Write the structure tokens for this entry.
Amino acid sequence: MKRTLENRNMYKWRATVAVLALALATPLAAFAQNMIQSITTSQQAGTDVVRVELSEALAAVPGGFSVQAPPRVAIDLPGVGNGLGKNSVELNQGNLLSANVAQSGERTRLVLNLRQAASYRVELQGKSLIVLLDSAGPVAAATSAPTQFAPAQNDQPLP
């Protein structure tokens, strides 16, 4: 009889330990996720520079796209969470109005709201994601020569 009671108590104890371990592991896993820590801007030689500080370095340059109307640049950050504590950051510098951060599951989309459409480049520098916005004003676009592209060197599709 005593052995049966000990087995029941042991089963309850193991179940309690398993529940506690699961409860503790969930927040630790979320804490270990790469997070956006800050978003800052500066201007360098007519280029707007957006610096997104992350808790960990990214493995590869993230993909993104731009929208002409309203002018925006969107960058998708897989495996990154929003650690800012807010979803919108007012920037108001150069061509930048604000940045919106939207997290869905294990992916975060960074949207840069612009005054006018601009081309962009993305670079990685350690734990920082750098977005360079090249704004060609209407005067510069009207006076510049037409763009000529070199012929394609690689006819193989990307994987």
User: Anything to note?
Assistant: DSSP finds two helices and ten strands in the chain. The beta strands are 34-44, 47-54, 64-67, 72-78, 80-82, 88-93, 96-104, 107-114, 119-125, 128-134. The mean pLDDT is 80. Residues 22 and 107 are 23 Å apart (CA to CA).
